[in-house]
Amino acid sequence: MGLFNLFSKDKKKSLDKGLKKTKEGFFSKLTRSVAGKSKVDDEVLDDLEEILVTSDVGVDTTLKIIDRIEERVSKDKYFGTEELNKILREEISGLLEENNSGSETEFVIPQQDAPYVIMVVGVNGVGKTTTIGKLAYQFKKAGKKVVLGAADTFRAAAIDQLKIWSERVDVPIVTQKMGSDPASVAFDTLQSAQAQDADVVIIDTAGRLHNKVNLMNELGKIKKVMKKVIPDAPHEVMLVLDASTGQNAIEQAKQFTRVTEVTGMALTKLDGTAKGGVVIGISDLFKIPVRYIGVGERMEDLQVFNKYEFVDSLFGEEQEA
């Protein structure tokens, strides 16, 4: 069953606003680099490469885009700088298309007898708890019964924050005291969710990347224990990354994909940064769907990632207020 309607005008406006810094930074640089030039030559391509890298698209993905544009330039000798925007838009769209990043308009929870379990991973400070709260709000608004599990038991603040969100959204939460076994919390949460006939379970986990072996063992144990209650859980392992950290977000994605199987990503804080290009780089490098992007403070500003609308907001004309 689909959870979200077609892209509303209000959501598109939020997306445009959220990507404004990225768009302005990128296009002001691009405009300066092609000023006074009529054709796409090596110098323009070198400038474009630098612009993409400094917009945090990432070196590997940037080279891929430049190679494709060079190929098109070599075929069409009359390729002018005025067409560069259009070609760039097409190549970025094509890249996102290939990587199957982002469903068109909705994130679908399949119909099943047991609750759908989402395990959320990511380091502290990336907006993990806020993302869980906003997800819970959106699922509840869509008529789903949601249960939260506070399995980041290493920080009292993490448990407290999640409790605040559970009260705010008015959904039940399962907690244990700080220092408890995270797997035990996950086990209790799934049992509680089954007893309550819940549709969705969202489990928070600790993200201590400095000790990768411990993190891998811990996430492995949580998964193993979940399977005792719901054999195919977790159905989604969602990695939350802070887009405003740019290349650091890509590094975190590398680390987490090494220690656990990540099936989807959420990129937060796009509205506060000009580093929105990181969405393109992450999508291309990891071939893992970007499920959600955060483009503002409101509950609704955690949006299902729609690759078409994303590219349109980056390259399209400004929307009327």
TrEMBL record:
Where does the record place it?
Cell membrane; Cytoplasm
Keyword Kinase: yes or no? no
Q: What is its main location?
A: membrane
Positions binding GTP in this chain are 122-129, 204-208, 268-271
Q: How does it sit in the membrane?
A: Peripheral membrane protein
Q: Which reaction does it catalyse?
A: GTP + H2O = GDP + phosphate + H(+)
Any one GO MF term held by the record is: GTP binding
In this chain the SRP54-type proteins GTP-binding domain maps to 289-302
- UniProt cross-references to Gene3D superfamilies, sorted A to Z: P-loop containing nucleotide triphosphate hydrolases, Signal recognition particle SRP54, nucleotide-binding domain
Q: What is its EC number?
A: 3.6.5.4
- Keywords from the named record: Cell membrane, Cytoplasm, GTP-binding, Hydrolase, Membrane, Nucleotide-binding, Receptor
* CC annotations in GO: cytoplasm; plasma membrane
- Give the similarity note: Belongs to the GTP-binding SRP family. FtsY subfamily.
Functional summary from the UniProt entry: Involved in targeting and insertion of nascent membrane proteins into the cytoplasmic membrane. Acts as a receptor for the complex formed by the signal recognition particle (SRP) and the ribosome-nascent chain (RNC).
Protein name (record): Signal recognition particle receptor FtsY
